[in-house]
Amino acid sequence: MAQNLFVKCKECGTIIERKKYAENNDVCNVCDSYGTLDYKKRLAMVIDHDTFEETNIHTGFYNPIDFPGYLEKHEKIKSKTGLTEAIVTGKACINEQKVMIGIMDTRYMMGSMGIIVGEKVTRLFEDAKELKYPVIIFTASGGARMQEGIFSLMQMAKTAAAVSSFGESGGLYISVLTNPTTGGVSASFAFLGDIIVAEPGALIGFAGKRVIEQTINEVLPPNFQTSEYLFEHGYIDMIVERKTLKDTLGQILKIHSQEENQIFQ
Amino acid sequence: MKSSSNEELENNNAWSKVLLARKITRFRSLEMIKNVFDSFIPLHGDRGIGDDKSIIGGIALLNHQAVTIIGQQKGNTPREMEYHQYGMTKPEGYRKSLRLMRQAEKFRRPIICLIDTPGAFPGVLAEENGQAEAIARNLYEMANFTVPIVSIIIGEGGSGGALALGVANRVFMMENAVYSVVSPEGCASILCKDSRKAPDMAGNLKVTARDLKNYGVIDEIISEEGTNEVIFNRIKQNINKELLRCSQLNGEEVRKERIEKFRKIGSEITFTQYDTRVKKS
User: Fold this and answer.
1) Which positions make up the signal peptide (chain B) (predicted)?
2) Which residues of B touch A154 (CB under 8 A)?
3) pLDDT-based confidence at residue A2 (cuts at 50, 70, 90)
4) How far, CA to CA in Å, does A209 sit from each of A182, B189, B199?
5) Are residue A154 and residue A124 in the same domain, yes or no?
6) What is the ipTM of this complex?
7) Is A61 helix (H, G, I), strand (E, B) or coil?
């Protein structure tokens, strides 16, 4: 009972009333650190109420290289979270503007990208191209999924090509990087947005910190691979707090939707 | 159900390929370029921050046809290996590659990529200079070029660092090369918390040319039988054959073929039911 009424901030350890924490968008009111959002909370935070229509629902399981232990891992996560993959995609409205939206959920195998995530992202861009909707993806991923071997790697090329085709047709793609966005996801569709937004304090990068420390024997600077660090080095357009995220996205969409008034063809 | 001894044999085979692919005496990009192509002129720099030593880039002739070549270089001595960053490419290397590929597009030259890397360079500066963005940008732009791209994995095809030169119309693999989403050691240390399990993981990850050919992820295996001279000649013939095939296509067809090649990986998925192959294991 008590556990349900309170949450503990993973960063500073403060015990916070769950209701207050939720009202503050799962941001700690003491240290301002951001809690991990599941896809439902993320949707509720950024889209107009009751406008989500899920697309390409996948309830099965795919083990393209018959990797040992993969099915068991899938079953375990599925029974614990109800999730069958690391991304949910669909149509929605943000401030009454239609978008195709993708939300990655780290509860499923650290949000890693395998063949189904790659396929869902690709279809998201293909559907958006056809419908002439903008695309918004909230990335949260440890990278390519090892258990699907080479097929995971190929999803990087596939999704990048999908962004490319969509982009060539003139579509707007906003990428919102959330904690964490690393590896094969950061090195494919995550960093290909026309506009790249990040949440404060998110871990964003390519190589893992431990890998860098071990192979190169370098000391990591403070703030390394955070949103703020990437922003300072010119790889992110803006860092946006959760409380203003929906309106910021809404404004960007609005500026891109003035087609009928467009005089410069 | 495979017998455990068969599985062990396969894992050993995969691991032996990993070791062969990494062997310090193995043929390297530079040697291959000099032997396969004529009149090679190296070109340098990304016009931004530097010239990455893991990437050999330039222009050359192949049977009188002008081509752009980009090769990941490792070297054959410890000193050379260090100089070339063990073939680990930095963002400026991917951007140098992209610059040369754009130039190839402008002058209508086919692009030949030779892949040999344990992975993209993992370092503080590499992150600071946008390693992820650099790789992503290569994937994005390579999808769109209208000149043919031929990639050959000549040794190690290490993850995103290899794929950033691997979005090609045809992907060849040398017989003893490997291509993987993660190094067997990395996989073992993450999944098993024990990097000594790397040989087993090499088998599980299906990294050999034969496995990847069976999956249809690569197009052809180039035999390593014979002397280097014989092998280089074989490589030359294969590139020639491929360029001849592509010469029958127009630029738009070349672009579409390449996009379709990657698009189809996973497009067979039905978004409803369990995969039957899983139930057997």
Assistant:
1) none
2) 163, 217, 262, 265-266
3) low
4) 10, 14, 24
5) yes
6) 0.96
7) coil
